[in-house]
Amino acid sequence: MNRVQIATWSEVPDRVPTAASVEGVDLVIVRRGDEHCVLYGRCLHRGALLADGEIRGDDLICGLHGWDYRIESGVSAYNNSEKLEKFTSEVHRDTLYVDRDEILHWKMMHPQPYSPDVYQGLYKDPHVVIEEPYVMQIHELAARGLTKVGHHGFVAAMGVPRQQLPSWDAINLHYRPLD
Prior knowledge:
Elements: E1 3-8, E2 18-22, E3 25-32, E4 35-40, E5 54-56, E6 59-61, E7 68-70, E8 86-87, E9 89-92, E10 95-99, H1 100-109, H2 135-144, H3 168-173
Antiparallel strand pairs: 1-10, 2-3, 3-4, 4-8, 5-6, 6-7, 9-10
């Protein structure tokens, strides 16, 4: 095992997800008493940092949308085909280690789109879903402003499919001017 230190064990809080990173791969440390677990640190649903979540019983809960993962296996209760990678770890003399080679091998198979060196790089959402088709455009605007879209930008509702929004006629139907 090519060990690399990721935490001082006595400083890892009990039942509080704790962030770590090795070779550009975000990890989450979960301590429960003397037991520890090191998992891939990004939610497979939308890429949020799992260290921003919480522990409920035997589950690690994502702080963004509440997606949950079993701590021991990494399997998601919402979608059993999604599983966080669990990395080999050990505690020796108050130091928590992981296997760097194992993480590098996993990273080769799962390139990371997150970059701490660019604005909002840690919070990039590589998942495009029909309910939120404008996430990438919002990230572009945050990074570059209105330079490529014009003075007023574009207008659209985020997070709601267009067919579920009321039409202009439906809104106008209920409008009554004040006397």
